[in-house]
Sequence to fold (437 residues):
Amino acid sequence: MDTIAAISTPKGAGAIGIVRMSGEQALAIALRFFTSSRIGSAIDVEPNRLVLGTFSDGSIREKCMMAFFRAPKSYTGEDIVELQLHGGAYLAERVLETLLGAGAKLAAPGEFTRRAYLAGKLTLDEAEGVAAMINAESEAELREAYCLMSGRFDARIKGLTDTLVESLGVIEASLDYPEEMADEADDSIEKAKAVREEMAALLDSYKAGRLIKGGVTVAIVGKTNVGKSSLLNRLVGYSRAIVSDVHGTTRDVVGESILHKGVKINLQDTAGLRETGDAVESIGIERSLAAAKGADVVLYVVEAGSHPDETDLANIRAFSKRVLLVNNKTDVFGASAEGLNISAKTGEGVGVLLDEILRVTSVDARAAETLTEERHADCVRRALRHLDDALAAFGQANVECVALDLRESVRALAEIGGEGATERVVNDVFSRFCVGK
Fold:
């Protein structure tokens, strides 16, 4: 394969800028431009050590560090060279241009990790964990990403797969010796039933896992002047939305994200719900309802001591299962008997409100091995369906169909780690990586 090169650090000024190469010619290309008093030739380069030297292509000179990782003991399984430069977008770009001009090829997004996967350094789901670690924006996301990247999730899937493979072996043997292996076949099906329960629980965890990965989207809706914008400002900790006594001040959806107990919460302040002849405000109200429809949780805000608009509340509850009635301005009107009582002005009750958002969505930052990737959920879903078919066939004494469906269930689970995954699936996974990783 070609020797590839890319900048592995974010663009812009910083303390360090790293340019990485991987491939058979990586060291040879680097030594055309990198010199050091400790290196006379390639044989003098000691793997896994940083060496101070100078990078020069005749027009630029840079005092930098070089690290060499010899195949196969490297991230990609190939020879890797990393040049650690002074941070700066122009400098890194110039060094990269020099390496490309010397024969390296610009790496595609995720190509370093893709080569690691092809070299057997990590499974496909572990590779997805690498991308998830890079993109994590909360403690919960980071925890689940590490579970993927470290192989803990893969080990769990492998355990389920091994049990099904063992059951499949017994069932296939019983096709030839049905009477002699009747008891063994019964035992293998019991083990398969246990796997089925664990797979069902794992698939069920995707409901929370999806929210962990993308964050919990919360729409703040209600009549005008009930304190929706004040609540948003209190939650984010600064004046994000305009607060005014004038009705209809908020005319569009105002979004901001916060972290609460390690979970990302995406807040959306919306235009107040009321009858209006203002065309612009009407559009804002339509967007309010659209935001509520797409939210994981809707906060219907009213003034404490008043009654919610039952028509508005019924409309919202018709398209959202998680609607929390929030009584604001308790510092002025006192607490209400129903709903959550808060004061956006003083902050009273706001912590309880955030806790309730996590409770109704069943999101817990401390949870581990939750299903967070749609691809994994699809694989488990298919594996579960085939396993259910196998168990049903066993109950009908159709052993041939049991073996067939068990085999398909194993195949679907194994696809999580990349075994049997189509090129399209693999391409899709790595297309979501950044260049340089």
Observations:
- The chain has three domains: 4-107, 126-205+371-431, 212-361.
- The longest strand covers residues 61-69.
